[in-house]
Amino acid sequence: MKYIKSIVMLFAASAMLTACDDNDWVPGNPVMDVTGNLGNACFGDSLSFTIKATDADVPLSTIHAELYFGDEMVSEEVIRTKVSGADYAGKIYVPYYANIPDAKATLRLTLQNIHFTTTEQIYSVDVKHPAYPSLIFRAETGEEYTMTRGEDYVYSVTQRFPAEMRGVIVAPKYGENGNEIVFGYENSEIKPYAEGMIPFSNSAPGRYTISFNTFTFEGSPFVVLTLNGQRLEAMTETTSSIDMNLAKGDTLVPDGFPSFNDWWIDPDYFTRNADGTLTFNAYNGNYRIIADTKLQYFRVYKLNGSEPATLNEDGTGAAWIIGEGIGHPSLSNTVGWTTENALCMAPTGDKTYQITLVGGKTVATNSINFKFFGQMGWGVELTGADLVSKSDLIGVGTGDNGHDNGNLFLQDGVELQDNGVYVLTLDLTQGIHDAVMTVDFAGEQEFEEKPVYLNGQKMTTSDNEVYSAVIELAQNSKLTFREFTALDNLYYDPDFFSFDEDAFEVSFLPISGYYNVVLDKLNGTLTAAMVNADGSEPTLNADGTGALYMMGWGVGSPSQNQQFGWNPGLAYSVAQIAPGVYQFTGNAGPENNSVAGDRFRFDYLSFKFFHQNGWGGEFGEGALRMTGDTDKLLKNTGNFELADDTQLEQGALYRLTVDLSAGIENGTVNMVKL
């Protein structure tokens, strides 16, 4: 519906009345002939129109287009009109706001001449929400995911994502007058054309749903982690941190932490209270608390300013542990000799430090090899000359007693008790060169097993986090789990397993035989290794059957955050997909902050294949003939390394195949990009 109204505006000053004759000034008669479909639009459209503008008596000035939602003008355009009788094309944007229902808007078109005489045409416009068939979620890294339409304006995509998934949502052009709209983030809200990335976040990495409502502009998930109301800042996709000044006995109130009842709480730093709060147990000071939502624990260390504290000569500061046979929150996350993983002992006084260990859980029961350091890294360390052990359980190496200088070891004949609690105290009250270590047995940690069954067989666990079972499996058979349902949240070793999301089924890929299957609920992985019927590790046979192992740098699983390294006893068992044929598949990724599936480092490789889990028989230089175009990717200098001036393509999927089916003396290796 439209109507036309002419308004004559007469302006005459007394000076003009005396200087000019009335016949010199005429109001004029502006006329508009409007064409265009102006009765219907969607939010986000650009309404297009063409106006033939004329005035036979007075030169024209402007066309003014105004769009109103109710009484509020929400959009306007001004067009200069220089020639009477000409056609002027224009368009006016229909804004897209949150929580605005479908309704009628008002479009006002006004033509004005230079004497301010105007004519108007007003249109009632039915404005509706666009019914997009789908949206695109464009991740910050460039990957695009289709968001399918559900009920009531909701669009969603379900995939395996990291815990933090930043990106924008792209709505395509809809209809003849539509515009592509990119929804970004501004002032903690999702808005059209905002430039910031939407910081979607889940409590943990894995399979979850990202959704967006085109009516309310609400998205999910957004998980905010706080301690005492203070927000933790993201460090990586699974870790967030906060620096706090804490005193012994302070109460901490956690909020937003997923499945917090299942988190491991370090007893040296915290006591979990019945109301879900934590009581701080360590000595007064500044601390960094790092929440690991994947491993479900808080890592804590003392600070000096904003940097990790170091140990002073007089024993004040912070004491650190680096080495083997110890880990938090369990031995599935061992410290090793990676210095950034160092454990900071809890200060119990100005110069005393403590760590509580649980046999088979946070400390190995049959072998340890770690030591005390003065920093989170190499530098000051306590040697056998600095440290005295007053324990019958744990001794200190001197370099002359069969153990490395300063390294801790289990005394002859000692094996720690499974679930036994051991409190290790480091007393530096006399300075770091007169250190005393004591180890006190504090009883047995209560353990209530939560069983998981694989193909009807009960799996073994000592912590309700890592489960294993030696089981006979047939190639391409199905695996069924009981008392564990989160199959869609696992990372599956791609050469041992495949997961059908639609059927919700796990299939076994290698040749038939006995395997040790490991379900790591803590890290969200399912892995396997071929074993003998009694669970012992097989070795490689001359005919190529048996088991093949891999060690080295630039290869790891599930990502480059867990490189294999040169650790005898911890070598990776390569999947045997046919008799004597072994396969290792993964994406090329960075060394740091890689994601699950990045099993090759894109810029550095140095690995080797072995006949057993450790030193002994191995495939040295020239022992495996490279086939296909493998020599364009790899060279064999004793270890397999990247070919000269070569890098793998980041994000690309590669497969490494070792074919020993003609015997180990006639083996080949082939690497291809899939």
Give a verbal description of the structure.
It is a single chain. By secondary structure, the chain is mostly beta strands. The longest helix is centred in the first third of the chain and has 6 residues, at 14-19. 1% of the residues lie in helices and 47% in strands. The two termini are 62 Å apart. The strands form 14 sheets. Strands 10, 11, 12, 13, 14, 15, 16, 17 and 18 form a nine-stranded antiparallel β-sheet that branches. Strands 1, 3, 5, 6, 8 and 9 form a six-stranded mixed β-sheet that branches. Strands 52, 53, 54, 58, 60 and 61 form a six-stranded antiparallel β-sheet that branches. The chain has one helix and 63 strands.
What are the main properties of this structure?
mainly beta; Immunoglobulin-like; 4 domains; six-stranded mixed sheet; 63 strands; 47% strand
Q: Layout of helices and strands, plus pairs?
A:
Layout: E1 4-7, H1 14-19, E2 31-35, E3 40-42, E4 46-54, E5 60-69, E6 72-80, E7 86-93, E8 103-113, E9 118-128, E10 134-139, E11 144-149, E12 154-161, E13 164-171, E14 181-186, E15 189-192, E16 198-201, E17 206-213, E18 219-220, E19 226-227, E20 230-231, E21 233-234, E22 239-246, E23 251-252, E24 254-255, E25 270-272, E26 278-280, E27 285-292, E28 297-304, E29 307-308, E30 320-327, E31 334-336, E32 343-344, E33 346-347, E34 352-358, E35 369-373, E36 387-389, E37 394-396, E38 408-410, E39 420-427, E40 435-444, E41 453-454, E42 457-458, E43 460-461, E44 466-473, E45 478-479, E46 481-482, E47 491-492, E48 497-500, E49 505-508, E50 513-520, E51 525-530, E52 549-556, E53 563-565, E54 572-573, E55 575-578, E56 581-589, E57 600-601, E58 606-610, E59 625-626, E60 634-636, E61 640-642, E62 653-659, E63 668-673
Parallel strand pairs: 3-9, 36-40, 47-51, 56-57, 59-63
Antiparallel strand pairs: 1-9, 2-4, 4-7, 5-6, 5-8, 8-9, 10-11, 10-13, 11-12, 12-17, 13-14, 13-16, 14-15, 17-18, 19-20, 19-24, 21-22, 22-27, 23-26, 25-26, 27-28, 28-29, 30-31, 30-32, 30-35, 33-34, 34-39, 37-38, 39-40, 41-42, 41-46, 43-44, 44-50, 45-49, 48-49, 50-51, 52-53, 52-54, 52-58, 55-56, ...
